[in-house]
Amino acid sequence: MARYQGVETDLNGAIVPGAKIYVYQFDGQTLAALTDDYGGTLPNPVISDSLGGYYFNVISQGLYYLKHQYSGRYELFEITAVGELIAAVNSSPANAGKFIALDADGAPTYASGTGADAALRTDLAAPGGSALSGFLQAGTGAVAESLQTWSRRVGIWPEQFGARVGGFDDARLVKAIAEINAHGGNRDLYLADDFTLSTGDILALTNASNVRIHGPGRLILDGGAADEGSILNLIGTCDNIILSGTRFSGPGRTDSAAKQYGFHNNSGQTLSKIWVDSCAFENLNLAISIGTESAGSVTNAIFTRNIIKHMTGTLGGQGYGINCVGITDAIIAYNQIEYAERHSIYVSRLKDTAGTYGGVLVDGNIIRNHRQTVNGLVTRPAIFMGRGYGGKISNNFIADYWDGAIGVGQDTGGGGAPVRQCGDIEISDNTLVGRRNAIASIQIAEPLVPTTARIDRIDVKRNKLFVDLAVATAQYEIEVYNGSNINLSDNNFYLANVANGTERLIAVGTIAGAGDVANVYVERNKVAGTAAGTPSLVNFATVYLPSAMATGTAKIVVRANDNDTGFTSLNVEYAATRTNPNIVDQVPGQLLTGVYTAGSTTPSVAGGIERFVITNASATTITNFLGGVDGQQIMLTFTDSNTTLQYNTNLRLPSASNIVGALRRTVVLVKSSGVWMPVSDITGS
């Protein structure tokens, strides 16, 4: 027990009786337990007597505060052992801002600015000074730690690792990345300035997860001969990597050796949850390249709101905006890409087995001036997706493009590459403005005869295509090289300055062998536009079918397309005389005319065929029309007398008699209860 006593005075030194003196423990909030000289309890606060005197005893060692209610001043005193009192230190405006230290006798005193407080400042300013300060987060259950521990966990700045060396930032950037890798990630790297690299492939996140690299700074490849490779690379197993708000740039090299990439990984890595958002890439050979090529896996990637300009070079590995190979479950959305010289967005090697799907969405991107300076009449569309199953290309805006806007395709195995099928891809609601050369805006399939590599189940719908043929060479707007189960529907075509006989909107089977095209549907597309002058557009067609399609057996359905009256004259243009019985060629308001094969005794009217023109060079008896449904009508127009319709259980003809054809004789039948019945029989004149 240690006794403390004093006399209460005001600021002028006058004695103050009846004043309250509060005694707090060192926290300044908890009132201390006090006793009198006999061990009895004293109230806290204590009250000064008529002469201003007061006293109390404390029972525990430690620091205590006295607050004098009357004068408002404070005192600090320390009990170093029970029964031993160290003199108090009184508060005073003159001591504001000073540190409390122990004098030569161990008593508390205010230190001068050149004494102990200066030493403390030196300690705090030392490299380990932040370890001397504590930090406690607000909230229940928060755990105290040093300020140093907390700040190291919060983030890393390259500037913390030294100055530039020879004008380059390689050393300090490498050290910053190494610090992140040493902790398996779990750090932020903040880039607030421009940093120049003398070479690529030195910044590599290796087996790091939960890393965010962000800030308005810029990473620059200097353009020297040795600066090949990636600005930022991912190696090993990396999960939850976020790249946000950072700029990447290079010198825009176009030579064959140039491989300057922004954000990239080599094949063989295991990557997941990769997000590149709101970054800028310019004057590189490739902005973003994430994939597996021949090994590894990449899942759950997002590339959004990036600005990409001038990706240079036309060789393999050059000229890409966003390149994703062998990736699963990815979103590429709301990016702005200009002047890419190979592909603006390239998505390849999706899941390559039917029934398993890559799940890649390319949506809402703005692409301009694709291949403007390097176009060469090759199929290098702005957006390409294929060589696997499961993807969607939608709501993109592509303007002023050379060598195609959108393409999907398989891999036919050329150049030793493995054969890869392609299918289950949707192309919808895109706006394509300004085709600039004679490569189709939308390309379906690899432009090679596919042999065993097939493309299947491609849905092209609700796209809008605006083309000025005074600027672009007349050509197909959608070209299906080959494939099966291809749906081209509800697309809108707006054409300006169309010259006579030059434009064909859609071509099917332009590069295909026998059996390479099946079940292609061209339906409900709308065509409008203006002619160049006032020509008679006799040969302008909605759909063009090469000879192999016109004379083969591929099922191709062209119907319900809305052609601008007086602007287009052909629903389908055939490169050879049509003999294919599986083509449906129907113009709105006209009967659906099928192809009658000479000599056929049971022609098919499946698919709603409504009319046949029947010609036979020798006697032929027709006994039935197969594939019809109840209520279906067929009009039969004969060109000679070599054909006979036989009365039988399938054809219930008038007077139970046969009908013999004659020039322009026309018979109309309707199917009812499974039997063809006569409606009319008109003899031509």
TrEMBL record:
Matching InterPro entries: CarboxyPept-like_regulatory, PbH1, Pectin_lyase_fold/virulence
SMART domains in the record: PbH1 (SM00710)
Name of this chain's protein: Right handed beta helix domain-containing protein
Species annotation: Sphingomonas panacisoli
Lineage, top ranks: Bacteria, Pseudomonadati, Pseudomonadota, Alphaproteobacteria, Sphingomonadales
